[in-house]
Amino acid sequence: MHPSLAALLVKFPALDALAPNLERAHATLVACYQAGGQVLICGNGGSAADAEHVVGELMKGYLSGRPIAADLRHSLTEAYGDTGAYLADHLQGGLPAISLVSHTGLLTAIVNDIAGDMIFAQQVYGYGRPGDVLLAISTSGNAADVLQAVRVARVRGLRTIGFTGRAGGQLAPLVELPLCVPADRTADIQERHLAIYHALCAMLEEALFPP
After folding, report:
1. Helix count (H) and strand count (E) of the chain?
2. pLDDT tens per residue across span 69-126
3. Contact, 146 vs 123, CB < 8 A?
4. Domain residues of the chain, as ranges?
5. N vs C: which end of the chain shows fewer Cβ within 10 Å?
6. 208 near 33, Cβ under 8 Å?
7. Cα–Cα distance measured from residue 106 to residue 36, given in angstroms and rounded to the nearest whole number
8. Whole-number Å distance between alpha carbons of 211 and 205
9. What is the CATH number of domain 3-59+95-208?
10. Is the pTM of this model over 0.90?
11. Which residues contact 165 (CB under 8 A, 6 or more apart)?
């Protein structure tokens, strides 16, 4: 078992039943990135904040600096001298991830012109490609806009991972990999979601940016 996953289970022993799906989620995300794909993330309220948080861990270094490749460093310094060296020193390897909660103009246009439950589905339709991954976060498992996004993702050939609570709601049977944490209160569910995606981000970083 990966050390980050083992540490997660030490902190939250009740998550032990999720270990197989967590390992599958990690493998799914690794395969997505190795194939040149991207991760789309959606949720409402605190889960929207989680979507932003995950992007922050994936698009830059999380636990390591993720130095860029030597050939890119060489190209930058050849093209721009000292400025290129500065860029090379400060750029970090990124894992493409898009928070679907962030695009205020687009979200309000969809709500106004189409329907409120289509805000994430429309973006999945526009951004998603076969082999990409949708991380769908809903503590109740019943958020209509999240469910619509998953439905579109499945038809478009995206892999789907759902973060939800004990009951699972409609989300658990709809996604390929449900992560139903054993908690009922929203705050408790979100606390465990945070620990899970931190562990997954650490595992991804180690797999895709080895020392």
Report:
1. 9, 5
2. 999 999 999 999 999 999 999 999 999 999 999 999 999 999 999 999 999 999 999 9
3. no
4. 3-59+95-208, 64-93
5. C
6. yes
7. 26
8. 10
9. 3.40.50.10490
10. yes
11. 139, 140, 141, 180, 181, 183, 184, 186, 189
